[in-house]
Amino acid sequence: MARIVIPDDEPAVMLPSSAFGKLRDKDVQLFDSRPAGLLELVERIRDAQVVINIRSTSRFTDEVLEKCAKLRLISIWGTGTDNVDLASARARGICVTNTPGVSAAAVAEHTIALIMAVAKQLVHIDQQVRRGNWPRAMVMQLRGKTLGLVGTGAIGREVAKLGIGLGMRVIAWTFHPERDIAEWVSFDDVFRQSDVVSVHVRQTAETLGFIRREHFDLMNRSAIFVNTARGGIVKEADLLHALQAGRIAGAGLDVFESEPLPADSPFYSLRNVVLTPHSAGITPETTEAGLALAIENVFSFLAGNPTNVVV
Predict the structure, then answer these.
(1) How confident is the model at residue 269 (pLDDT cuts 50, 70, 90)?
(2) Can you tell me the distance from the alpha carbon of 156 to that of 212, in angstroms, rounded to the nearest whole number?
């Protein structure tokens, strides 16, 4: 029987889930804390044939994979694979799977919530009212505005639908345009033409630092920027400069270069930014469905018919 290790279930999502019952009769070891570093991660998974990865803070580097000779599958809960050295996994014959599409609706809803919160200045106005003020802010109306998408995977497509429902014109750039879900434009034109730019590509070597100062310089001063993908896709210092200088009107951010966001982050002092803690895809529905799919990916692999394979 294959040894299955879950090395990083903190905060606990797998253990209290209904999906965990699917592993009841299997050889499973679950750790309810995150490994303190690479050496502790290696100690936890050294004898595993299968790892179910919960937290992206567990980094499956070449050094880690080299020390885990028995490892044959890393089943990731979620879509992001930036915490796995995919080239090393491929070279070592380690299969990597993820759970695509499961959280698309939840992340899309969260994206629209951030857009609304920034466009309507909801956090700032709420704080003013609580202080006894009665502000009359002139806020952005979204109907008739242009929503620009960077990436049109499962999440991007859901955001496009919701944007259209709000009466917005939707334009998009993606690596592989396939369907007529939006008006396709160049990468630069997404920034140049949009009132709202929303990011929905995966973080890879190709997209690391993908969006930077030159792109913010293309945006209208009244435009807002939203990122619910991965923090590393955006050069954070360039985004901060654009916000501090009033080069763009505001931002809604669920992801950051360093997470949790450091205590001295300049983002805290910016009134034109709404911050959430990488929580866009966390709902009871998506959590259960994602964990169940991560487990099903294990069963499919062990049966010789791997599904949702990244490498």
Answers:
(1) very high
(2) 20
3-class DSSP assignment, residue 110: helix
Is 309 contained in some domain? no
49 in the same domain as 80: yes
Range of the domain at 67: 3-102+284-302
Global pTM value = 0.91
Residue 310 inside a domain? The answer is no
Total count of domains within the chain:
2
Tally of residues, the chain: 311
For CA atoms 42, 44, 48, 50, the dihedral sign is: negative
Q: Pick the catalytic residue: 109, 278, 288, 296?
A: 278
In terms of domains, do 116 and 36 share one? no
- 143 falls within a domain: yes
Contacts of 171 (CB under 8 A, 6+ apart): 146, 147, 148, 149, 182, 183, 184, 185, 189, 190, 193, 194
Give yes or no: 230 in active site: yes
Please, which pLDDT band fits residue 178 given cuts at 50, 70 and 90? confident
Instruction: Supply the CATH number for residue 239's domain.
Output: 3.40.50.720
Q: Which of 259, 271, 285, 288 is catalytic?
A: 259
C-alpha span between 304 and 311 (Å, rounded): 15
In whole angstroms, how far apart are CA 203 and each of 81, 183, 207? Answer: 8, 24, 5
206 is a catalytic site residue: no
